[in-house]
Automatic annotation (TrEMBL), chains A, B:
It comes from Bradyrhizobium daqingense. Keywords: Lyase, Thiamine pyrophosphate. Its cofactor is thiamine diphosphate. Belongs to the XFP family. Pfam families: XFP, XFP_C, XFP_N. GO terms for biological process: carbohydrate metabolic process. Residues 495-697 form the Xylulose 5-phosphate/Fructose 6-phosphate phosphoketolase C-terminal domain. Residues 1-278 form the Xylulose 5-phosphate/Fructose 6-phosphate phosphoketolase N-terminal domain. GO terms for molecular function: aldehyde-lyase activity. This is Xylulose-5-phosphate/fructose-6-phosphate phosphoketolase.
Length: 711, 711
């Protein structure tokens, strides 16, 4: 990529220092895989690239993401035979079942069988042509074979194959675009290219085979500084290309060869599809306030947060239907995650045959479902990287499947932000739901809230983590995320019916601050510090915290409680580490300098410690969260097993407030008895005790008036 | 699985409470997907299972892991068409290129196309038979189709297909085992089973199609308590199986049907291969001390840690060659990770054609290389779960690809440890190398030390994380890990030439404690607390810490420095949280109660904070580690960019020791100047300054005698 874009001139336009002369070429060579220079594989710094080399597996799925909704684009995707061994790549071949020739572009896979990886032959490289043909016909392609080692013949054969492939693509597209109904899914062309690894490089070094073998990987001849024989091999190799005939006296490519490259944006290094921000159009968003759940009093209404979000997303789809630049991805879970309102506006894309009883399938659907988190993530990355927008909803536990893809995308964003010529692309937005705390029918395999721990390792300017506690806060956050660029936003929210806490106006104030005191829930005096801070992040921890506060308010009316709710987890970090981080003064204002803080958190408790270890009151922070307990059980039993329930939280508050444990010994014992009662009840009845199931926030009694106290 | 093992009797043997009578059956039904009961999919609690359902994708790769080196075993592996859409499963089909019919068992894949997932048709389910045939012939199989919906006909067709498949397997095996050389890789049989989803369940509910559609997923008819029509559907459905004819008056299966199940261990719930600990034989280990690197003085010898480990692993292979119960996995990286001594004892397994110039390939090799971390991990899991041993070496950054597989295996181990009938299996041992700190040619895409953060989220009795600082410690740790059961051991160690610190005897003392004071490196008095503690975990941080100590010793001879090296990261956790955790007293003894601790750590610094936030001196701990900086650059520049280098560490020590910053202002400035000099030098020369490259620990000068101070 680097050499090609240098020769076609686009490289020097972006990096004028690497000019098209001898000095520029020297710099070009020297910076390659050199400290302070550029990596040895495609990278953000490489013009015309949309993803980094190195970790393999994502070429084809990104190619499809790039082709969706771009009818004039043909994405030629070179898949190495090493990369072809990876799981994500193996699954990607089925992407052609989701590509609509009428309004999507085309992907032309070029499977490059050079036969070797770092130190091994490749699995596909050693398969016979018949097996390769069967395999890719089975994947829905018509393979065109280009095989040999004579460059002159090979170039012509390749050109012929490309002509055939492009004609075939054009024919498939015309057929679909003429409005003739496609009965059968088309058989798309692909090219299988067999050429030697290290082609035209040294045949042998020290009597050992190099060209056409894995020894040609990366450094075919080494130690040229000290080994004159190796230097000779290198020189002969370089001279074999007759550079004197290719470059003029100043080191510039001769005009006849320069003229071979296409012009302007048709050069591979200047293709705007590989700098998606150039093509990006603003996403049109409906007013999220119009989807507000009416919440006259905190806790007075029950709603399913993701179901409300579904209505908002439905209108996002409608508003951008003409632009065709927004898609929703989900591994067979859009309906299960209760976003099904989107099916009022669109369908699931499906190019395979349909049956009369099928529902919500269409060739031009905008929801993409396949039972592969890798494909969902990869399609979306490709779609975003080429200038579009999207949303990915996933079961919380299984998002770990794409940890490494998330990592690489975050790295990509980090580096592209430092390159002024790379224009911002839309953020990658995750909704993680069907989360750890609701496992009535699944169980331990579906319980892992640790993805955000990985996310929090990334650079502050790239990542955001949100825990909206109810529907209105979820709507505010989702709207906000869809407006951002060059970020990865992770929203964690439940799908089950749950009490709603904030009106849309309160939600807006709260989310805008990212964290705040819920004074309507607490019992503190305006002019004195509370005895204890009950903090929470996440919908279930918020519910349990409020229930604990309710217990404490009733049993110990003199106890001064402050309730702090965290929506934006990054507010907890020091301001120096994250732009959303609270200053120490603001943090201390919320969490006090020395009062006990009982923090109920959605995920692994360590994350809260790790974010707050430098704060004044860190020694006073007692975090409860998921500690890997519980399997198939009731909602309340899940929190009890992990000690995140109202009784454990209330007991801990009593124990942590100085002097209270003795005074309130009887109350504590009552709460302990409740835990025993619960345990017995749930084993007998298979459901939670009525007093837990039926608990509601006491709208009238005790607390301050319902209004956001801010931060 | 639960129903089948109950009917065959094995379930009641393991769980006598679930007897083969009406009462037992009632308990069986009631516990299913019920609080305190069992999950709705296969789980550790399920007899005959070797992995959990839920997260899909690993059935086939585990099946191959089970079949390797077990010549009499045929693993029938049912792959659902939902699971078939995942990346790991898609890659797994190529596993047949690594299975040797002469000494491995066989895998019989049964691709079950019931056509639907939760809410969608499946990709493979809607493919025509011709495409399916092409696809699986391309994968090297001969598909046998079993299709229909009449149970009577289908049972017979399935039995016939099984007969054909088993005969074909036997013929392939006999051919290979008769010593006739296999020229062509055999074409293994597989079965493609098309049957309706929810087969023999309700055809319709409320006028909507259920049998043969996705509505049959999990709960085909709901709300039977309140909806009499639905209750009737349920009752009719259940009665359609004529239970009165199948069970006697006590609720026991009638003897004629009981007699259909095979006997003893041939029942699926009593198969010892699905309780691998029953079959496990001790791994024979050479004396790791015999591979010791001679280290007369700390830092006096240079060695490559992983290369030394390779020799030890070579002999592990030799000692267990007859038992054939040890394999090494690696994604094309065994040689790159410098474990190539293993090729003196074995080769890479390779069943595809070979060329005369190929090296280290053999049909009976014991090293498994494929460019898929998913396959390496999955094969190894399957191999361990069926009672064998293994070792997985991987580039550190790319191990994130299998985060989710690691998670699920850790969950499996956690639950199996609580089941007395499940016998312990060998630990899953990772060597993570080619790590973040050495990226001369790769770069940012290859830099991520965060896998251990994920590991540390798991239950303490399952996971161990080791950072051996040199070759002898690596040998000790590797030997230790290979002796453990039911754990996941993660070893992080570099492959580059590096100074060696400990003799084997000192290494043994140090590793046995897991953490210790290196008094030979420090300058503290025996009877007084040091001014500063320089702590380190990881080979590169240890090197930089010692170099910083050397700088400080020379510049500030009066400064009392303690050096603490951490091999076993879990020693940092409180004893209550991890069995290896130090008591607070021991921890304070090492890190002091209030002196500044400059902690140089291999990974993301937060992990150290999270492990130590409860310790007395946490406020005094200043951790340096990877902060996502640096790309393709020199070894020393990498540490400088992340502020983990000797100069930054020495400067921080000066700044943190009370009163020293002013006194040592000049020294500090010298170190700062060195950083500027380095920066200039590396950009100009593309390599590190001679004084950095050539730095050696001063064997003679200053410090105490080289001996482990231990704890």
């Amino acid at each position: 990529m680097v050499a090609n874009t240098y020769l076609e001139g686009s490289y020097s336009e972006i990096y004028p220092d690497i000019a098209r002369d001898a000095d520029g070429m020297r710099k070009l060579f020297r910076q390659f895989s050199f400290p302070g220079g550029i990596p040895s594989h495609a990278a953000p710094e490489t013009p015309g690239s949309i993803h980094e080399g190195g970790e393999l597996g994502y070429a084809l799925v990104h190619a499809y993401g790039a082709a969706f909704d771009d009818p004039d684009l043909i994405v030629a995707c070179v898949v190495g035979d090493g990369e072809a061994e990876t799981g994500p790549l193996a699954a990607s071949w089925h992407s052609n079942k989701f590509l609509n020739p009428a309004h999507d572009g085309a992907v032309l896979p070029i499977l490059h069988l050079n036969g070797y990886k770092i130190a091994n032959p490749t699995v596909l490289g050693r398969m016979r042509d018949e097996e390769i043909r069967d395999l890719f016909r089975g994947f829905g392609h018509e393979p065109l074979f280009v095989e040999g080692d004579d460059p002159r013949l090979m170039h012509q054969t390749m050109a012929d194959a490309l002509d055939v492939a492009l004609a075939s693509i054009r024919s498939i597209q015309q057929h679909a675009r003429d409005g003739r109904k496609t009965i059968e899914r088309p058989r798309w062309p692909m090219i299988v290219l067999r050429s030697p690894k290290g082609w035209t490089g040294p045949k042998e070094v020290d009597g050992k085979k190099v060209e056409g073998f894995w020894r040609a990987h990366q450094v075919p001849v080494s130690g040229c500084r000290d080994n004159p024989a190796h230097l000779k091999v290198l020189e002969d190799w370089m001279r074999s290309y007759e550079p004197d005939k290719l470059f003029d006296d100043n080191g510039a490519l001769i005009p006849e060869l320069q003229a071979l490259a296409p012009d302007g944006q048709r050069r591979m290094g200047a293709n705007p599809h590989a700098n998606g921000g150039l093509l990006k159009k603003e996403l049109k968003l409906p007013d999220f306030r119009s989807f507000a759940v009416e919440v006259p009093q905190p806790g007075s209404v029950i709603a399913e947060a993701t179901r409300e979000l579904g209505k908002f997303l439905r209108d996002v789809i409608r508003l951008n239907a003409k632009e065709r630049n927004f898609r929703i991805m989900g591994p067979d879970e859009t309906a299960s995650n209760r976003l099904d309102a989107v099916f009022e506006a669109t369908e699931r894309v499906w190019m395979e045959p349909t049956e009369p009883y099928d529902v919500h399938l269409a060739q031009d659907g905008r929801v993409m479902e396949v039972l592969s988190e890798h494909l969902c993530q990869g399609w979306l990355e490709g779609y975003l990287l080429t200038g579009r927008h999207g949303f990915f909803s996933c079961y919380e536990a299984f998002i770990h499947i794409v940890d490494s893809m998330f990592n690489q995308h975050a790295k990509w964003l980090k580096v592209t932000r430092e390159l002024p010529w790379r224009r911002p692309i839309a953020s990658l937005n995750y909704l993680l739901t069907s989360h750890v705390w609701r496992q009535d029918h699944n169980g331990f395999s579906h319980q892992d809230p640790g993805f955000v721990d990985l996310v929090a390792n990334k650079k502050a300017d790239i990542v955001r983590i949100y825990f909206p506690p109810d529907a209105n806060t979820l709507l505010w956050i989702a709207d906000h995320c869809l407006r951002t660029y060059n970020r990865i936003n992770v929203i964690v929210a439940g799908k089950q019916p749950a009490p709603q806490w904030l009106s849309m106006q309160d939600a807006a104030t709260h989310c805008d601050a990212g964290i705040g005191i819920w004074s309507w829930a607490g019992t503190e005096d305006a002019n004195a510090e509370p005895d204890v801070v009950m903090a929470c992040a996440g919908d279930v921890p918020t519910l349990e915290t409020l229930a604990a506060v309710d217990l404490l308010r009733k049993a110990l009316p003199d106890l001064k409680i402050r309730v702090v709710n965290v929506v934006d987890l990054m507010t907890l970090q020091p301001r120096e580490q994250h732009p959303h981080g609270l200053s120490d003064r603001d943090f201390d204002g919320l969490f006090t300098a020395d009062k006990p803080v009982i923090f109920a958190y959605h995920g692994y408790p360590y994350l809260i410690h790790r974010l707050t270890y430098n704060r004044t009151n860190h020694a006073g922070m007692h975090v409860r969260g998921f500690i890997e307990e519980g399997t198939t059980t009731t909602p309340f039993d899940m929190v009890v097993l992990n000690k995140l329930d109202r009784y454990h939280l209330a007991i801990e508050a009593i124990e942590r407030v100085p002097g209270l444990a003795t005074k309130a010994a009887q109350v504590k014992q009552q709460f302990r008895d409740k835990l025993i009662e619960h345990s017995r009840y749930v084993r007998e009845h298979g459901e939670d005790m009525p007093e837990v199931q039926g608990w509601v926030w006491p709208n009238s009694a005790g607390g301050n008036t319902p209004a956001e106290a801010g931060d």
